[in-house]
Design a protein that fits this description.
homotetramer, Tetracycline Repressor, domain 2, DNA-binding
Chain lengths: 207, 207, 207, 207
DNA sequence: AATGAATGAGGCTTCATTCAT
DNA sequence: CATGAATGAAGCCTCATTCAT
């Protein structure tokens, strides 16, 4: 009776066929959530778009939220890998801080530009359950920790508390990129926005 | 399907009694939305909490969204007035930039701390209709414009495009305060957060 | 999340109109449960038969089980009143024991004959929740207590423990009547059955 | 709609392996029905508990009901054999009636005590199809017939119609034992219950 | 014989909204 | 203006059963 809401996938697909099914569902969900928002999306719609019966959907996901959580975790992971890759692929000690920041900010912006509505849904619209949030935040925290380490090593960076700084940097970039994509301000180009962001974050790190 | 959704209050309360009713509804909605979120809140629940019949609620608000829009506009207005007041009440030319920023950021943070869940709902959870968004953004834009004017006059501020800068500043502060309140990071006090924000925005404006 | 299952009516009808609605639902449920059994009955079917929208049904009953519980309590009450009335309406001291038992057994049999399927559903098919069962059993226990008192006063009755005897008598009559109606044995008339029952219970009480 | 429901096992297991499979399913079903009730039990759950695929389950049982019917018949058979054995194993003519009844009643009670929930499910909760009922009742009738013969021979028994008496005796004992186990009355021990039953049935048979 | 992925009808229930009183 | 009973579309989800492998 007091059944706690599960948000993790119900069972992992064992056979080839079912792995395909799950992938179809995820792809369909990506589109449907982006088009209709979380509340507007229906599980039946997702199943239909996936070309799969509603029963199959519920074979792998215990409820609607679990689908979004899977999407969210996947996106956070992809984004994290992409961004950490960006940082890792150049010699930070040698590179000018601005030169590290610009591609970083651009990439973040592009991540949101790619499917802004989906990011919107993931970031804000969904009513995250406590557990789901924890899972996504754990990934985010991991990323912040890694960035903090990186900041410590850069000669141009002078901050008292690198973890605090990483927190500020990550969320400033994420949230402003999000804001920019969702409510594009009149009269500011993408390039201009990136430059302002570089100035904002660059000035903060290199005091 | 295409029936355009009204989001403005249905009629303005003319008599004393009805003004009271509307106020009751708004107060109740503030609580209920904050407690249950937008989707979780029901109009019946709001009416009940307001001590008003559901019929009366619909006498003044055409639908659920309109109630939230009313709340949102009110909150944006209150916030705007408060923050503009803060800026206006001191002689900016004379005051050190940091001394202007700190109370500004603190106030923003407090606005979110006061009723974080409601702000969360207003800012993100609600599925804003295009028109509703426009209305709220118009108020936000107004505020940004005023801030841009202020920035132009401060001697310590040196930005190429003051409207761009105002946009960045407003949204950086708003979104980071929001983030901080909603997902408080472990190991960063409110004071520390404010100082980081002052550094972030101060460094940006005073290049 | 851990919402406990309610089985009591959701709200009592205040106005005349709604009292009628509730009555319609109960009447319809009586028929539908009797015709289709508990599992086979659907709330939509009940609402339709009641000439009422499904929403109205759920305004007064939180779920399907609650409807049956209401029926069950009503039936137990009616049966209890009828049977206690039977006992009360004659001077037990004067009457021969058999003369008290026969109408009592006949009435019980008729109660089950009247709507055997509904009794079946109420008595056995429904998956009684613990709380629902308690409520119905409380009424049954009340009846047993009263019967025990009556047994104590009858001169022809000689039992060691009148409450035990009342338990045996009530359930023997109830269950055998139930059995007889649900699975009528070949070659035994209703009259014959009643006489056998009189012999069974009479012999037990008057040892 | 009118597709007649099969309730007999789909095919008899010929090979050793399949006989084992069927046995596993039956054991699992016994547990699952007892734990969850008929409606609450799912075929998938039974298959899983049996360590067998759902497909295999449907290889041997055409539907959920058929599983329960198989259980029911098995239990009626076991019970019948046990009880008839009890009657047969002593010389009835010589034995005092009470001495026959007591172990008989005790055994019936124990049969129900053993797995009360399963008996509950079998006896009442399941929505018996007409055919299924017939099958179970045929076994019950057989038993009643045998008991009637026995009653005819006992010197202490004096009943007009021994088949009627057997019907009453069997169902009185069965239903009261069932009742006692399912809704144990406060303040009556198992021993006390047996004695009351002995008095009830003994008084009836030995008028 | 066994597997288990897939199916989909249909049940229960919610809740924004209307409208007769 | 207020009331609150009534509405019903529509969503989520279950689970018995099938069938390709």
């Amino acid at each position: 009776m007091a059944r706690k809401k599960r948000i993790n996938p119900r069972k992992s697909p064992a056979q080839e066929r079912s792995r395909f099914t799950v992938e179809q569902i995820i792809q369909a969900a990506t589109q449907v959530f982006a088009e209709w928002g979380y509340a507007g999306a229906t599980t039946n719609h997702i199943a239909e778009r996936a070309g799969v019966s509603i029963g199959s959907l519920y074979q792998y996901f215990p409820n609607k939220e679990a689908i979004l959580v899977t999407l969210a975790k996947r996106h956070v992971e992809i984004a994290g890998n992409l961004l950490m890759g960006l940082v890792a692929e150049r010699n930070l000690i040698e590179t000018d801080l601005t030169e590290v920041l610009r591609p970083f900010i651009q990439a973040t912006l592009e991540l949101h530009t790619g499917n802004p509505r989906l990011n919107y849904v993931i970031l804000s619209e969904a009513v995250w359950s406590a557990e789901a949030m924890e899972q996504v935040h754990a990934l985010e925290d991991q990323f912040i920790d890694q960035l903090a380490l990186t900041l410590d090593t850069h000669r141009q960076v002078s901050v008292k508390n690198s973890r605090h700084a990483a927190y500020i940097v990550v969320h400033a970039i994420k949230n402003l990129a999000h804001e920019f994509v969702i409510h594009p301000p009149a009269g500011m180009s993408e390039e201009a926005f990136v430059e302002e962001m570089v100035a904002l974050v660059g000035g903060y790190l290199n005091r």
